[in-house]
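Duplicate of #3305? Posting structure anyway:
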């Protein structure tokens, strides 16, 4: 009986160790995955606007200057309005001009996608693809607007 308990304890220890290693590998893998961001265009009630690969509205922040992210230096802002990140040159989807896509480098080496010089953001409270109710939101000392494929503000 004692021998069975020892064997079961050994099996459980091995299974737990394997699960812990597998879990750690899954958490590390996405950080090393190379993925270029895709920017597309979507028809909404506001007209055609830029969206992420998952169809989420992309925003500009009125406090930003050309190719400069102001949100990153405001406490709490990047958590509410995370930058659209890309590990390589961003890809242009249908209706998007690749010549207007670029990246800027934030602290920590993060590459943020820009469009016509506007740093692009997602909204953490976005409920799903095509959501536009946050366009025009006032937060962190500025407004958050959508952008069209010409690089112009959509209010």
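Output from current build:
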């Amino acid at each position: 009986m004692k021998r069975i308990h020892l064997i079961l304890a050994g099996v459980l220890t091995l299974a737990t160790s394997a699960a812990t290693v597998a879990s750690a590998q899954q958490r590390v893998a996405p950080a090393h995955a190379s993925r270029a961001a895709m920017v597309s265009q979507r028809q909404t009630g506001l007209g055609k606007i830029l969206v992420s690969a998952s169809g989420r509205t992309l925003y500009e922040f009125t406090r930003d200057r050309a190719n400069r992210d102001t949100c990153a230096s405001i406490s709490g802002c990047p958590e509410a309005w995370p930058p659209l990140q890309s590990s390589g040159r961003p890809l242009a989807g249908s209706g998007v001009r690749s010549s207007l896509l670029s990246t800027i480098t934030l602290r920590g080496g993060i590459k943020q996608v820009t469009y016509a010089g506007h740093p692009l953001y997602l909204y953490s409270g976005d409920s799903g693809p095509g959501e536009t109710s946050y366009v025009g939101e006032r937060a962190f000392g500025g407004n958050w607007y959508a952008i069209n494929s010409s690089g112009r503000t959509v209010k």
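Confirmed duplicate; merging threads. Residues 38-154 form one domain. The radius of gyration is 21 Å.
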